[in-house]
Amino acid sequence: MMRGYLRIITLKAMQEGPKTGYDIIKYIGEKTSKKPSYGSIYPLLEQLKKEGLIEAKEEKRRKIHSLTKKGREEIKHLTNQKNELLEKLEEGICIFATIADTKSVKLELEFIKKMKREELTSMDLMPEMDDLKKTILELVLKNPNKTQKKEIIKIIKRTTKELEAVK
User: Fold this and answer.
1) Which candidate, 49, 54, 99, 164, has a CA 20 to 30 Å from the CA of 90?
2) Domain residues of the chain, as ranges?
3) Check: CATH 1.10.10.10 for 5-67?
């Protein structure tokens, strides 16, 4: 699951307040639509504890995990890194937009700006959007025949129409 991101998402979960391992799994499932396994979350919690980023207290046979000062500093550091990356991405898209001048590029810029202002998180619809984009790209890269292309276009047009109706 989300290799590399699980650590960040776990810390962000505890930023909202102390949580049990189960609460963290549930939180991640709600935010990403993909729940991590117990076998990945509990060793990670132990690792974060060893690094001094979190602490755990026993309450009624349950471990409640919370951020330490060092853990909160780590989240600030990761947030700064995210913002630097978003700025570089925005700059690259701006350059591309001058060449391509497409409406979707302008929408992507607005999406990035909202992420920087934290009006959107990278979790908002991202797994679903990534799945859709991945599926479309895989289909296109398989060099579909004429019949398949027509079917793909028909599905994309229908889906676009349905999504526009949500506006």
Assistant:
1) 164
2) 5-67, 78-122, 125-167
3) yes
pLDDT in tens, the chain (167 residues): 455 678 888 999 999 999 999 999 999 888 877 888 889 999 999 999 999 999 999 988 899 999 999 999 999 998 888 888 888 887 877 777 666 666 777 777 777 777 777 776 655 566 677 778 788 888 888 888 888 888 888 998 898 899 889 87
Q: Measure CA 27 to chain center.
A: 13
Taking the C-alpha atoms of residue 137 and residue 128, their distance in angstroms, rounded to an integer, is 14
Rg (CA), the chain: 20
